[in-house]
Design goal:
- The protein is mainly alpha-helical.
- Among the domains are: 71 residues, Serine Threonine Protein Phosphatase 5, Tetratricopeptide repeat; 134 residues, Serine Threonine Protein Phosphatase 5, Tetratricopeptide repeat.
- It is built from 21 helices and no strands.
- The radius of gyration is 27 Å and the shape is elongated.
- About 6% of the residues have low confidence.
Length: 374
């Protein structure tokens, strides 16, 4: 006859945990996983038990369930270091080395011990071995894979400074190209002296802003705007488009100077001109900039609404990558993890289509952060 006290003892949470740990050490991983499952029936969601079962699944090669348990252990506490380490280990085993590196770094920041340090080293080595010279040749000069991932991780601690940065280099180059292309095409219809003045002025305005001289850039743009307003349409066939471009330049400089209300007005004027004269590229540029002003001042839903209006106007995979990434960041600000992850995954898709490793990593970090908040 079974001893009732022994049956009760075997059915307690601590006894199932002890049994599972003993079986795990003996290499009986399937039986250990069952013991931990029994324990979870008694204490649903226990994070230490979930990590223990995740380790069993990892040893068994059941990577999907291993990752599921590791993520479940972080549901109530995204700073739970055992869960972060187990998720990183599972991701590493799955071959998702960039994601693994994100979580090794996250854990090391919370608890700088040897396990996380070793994880960082092995994930970094795996990334280097898997893509080698491709990453070093694609990432912008002086910036490593680890730099990009750390920047993304630190974003959660420095949210305000993220939106203080200048527009990405790609976006600035696109704006300048939009401003110059029509003038280069229409030089035959515009007096040579005028065309030269405009092109040189636009380059100077952008150069001043890029070099950190926002005040000088603003003064130059306002001076050129005043001059163009004195010209007639007969003298300058694409005068309206030029006016829109100059309002855009003024808005960019105003934003860098912290004059957000004035910047919003300038970019809205650019948008009005674009809509009035059916200039889709200029409209795309204006929406881009308006969204950035909203993000800078913390109006993230308005930034999202503006950038979503721009999505159909985005022409290249790289532009879509950057745009979707920014929308995802805004959703992260609003603590809407599922939406942030959705846009991060879309950004990653376009980055892979473009073959841009830097943006693949940026998007991967965003997805990982969204999962951590979810």
């Amino acid at each position: 006859m079974a001893d009732p006290e022994a049956e009760v003892l075997r059915s307690t949470f601590p006894s199932y945990m002890a049994e599972g740990e003993r079986l795990y050490l003996c290499g009986e991983f399937a039986k250990a996983a069952q013991s931990f499952s029994n324990a979870l029936h008694l204490q649903t969601g226990d994070k230490n038990c979930l990590v223990a079962r995740s380790k069993c699944y990892l040893k068994m090669g059941d990577l999907g369930n291993s990752l599921k348990d590791a993520e479940a252990s972080l549901q109530g506490d995204p700073t739970f270091c055992k869960g972060i380490l187990q998720k990183a280990e599972t991701l590493y085993t799955m071959g998702d080395f960039e994601f693994a590196l994100v979580f090794y770094h996250r854990g090391y920041k919370l608890r700088p011990d040897r396990e996380f340090k070793v994880g960082i080293q092995k994930a970094q080595e795996a990334i280097n071995n898997s893509v080698g010279n491709l990453i070093r040749g694609t990432i912008r000069s002086g910036v490593t894979v680890e730099d990009l991932i750390l920047t993304g991780i630190n974003y959660l601690d420095t949210r305000s400074s993220f939106w203080q940065q200048q527009k990405p280099i790609y976006a600035r180059e696109r704006d300048r190209k939009l401003m110059r292309d029509r003038w280069l095409r229409d030089r035959g219809r515009t007096p040579a002296q005028t065309a030269h003045y405009v092109l040189k002025s636009l380059e100077d305005i952008d150069m001043l802003l890029s070099s950190g001289s926002a005040e000088s850039s603003l003064q130059k743009a306002e001076k050129v705007l005043k001059k163009v307003l004195d010209w007639g349409r007969d003298e300058v066939p694409n005068r309206d488009e030029l006016l829109g471009s100059l309002h855009s330049c003024i808005g960019n400089a105003q934003l860098e100077l912290g004059h957000t209300v004035a910047a919003l007005q300038s970019h809205r004027r650019d948008l009005e001109i674009a809509q009035e004269h059916n200039l889709p590229d200029a409209k795309s540029r204006a929406l881009d900039n308006i969204g950035r002003v909203f993000a800078r001042i913390g109006k993230f839903q308005q930034a999202i609404d503006t950038w979503e209006e721009k999505i159909p106007l985005a022409k290249t995979a790289l532009e879509k990558t950057w745009l979707l990434h920014e929308i995802g960041r805004c959703y992260l600000e609003l603590d809407q993890a599922l939406q942030a992850q959705y846009y991060g995954e879309r950004s990653l898709q376009y980055a892979e289509e473009e073959g841009d490793v830097e943006w693949q990593l940026n998007a991967s970090v965003l997805v990982a952060q969204a999962q951590g908040l979810g």
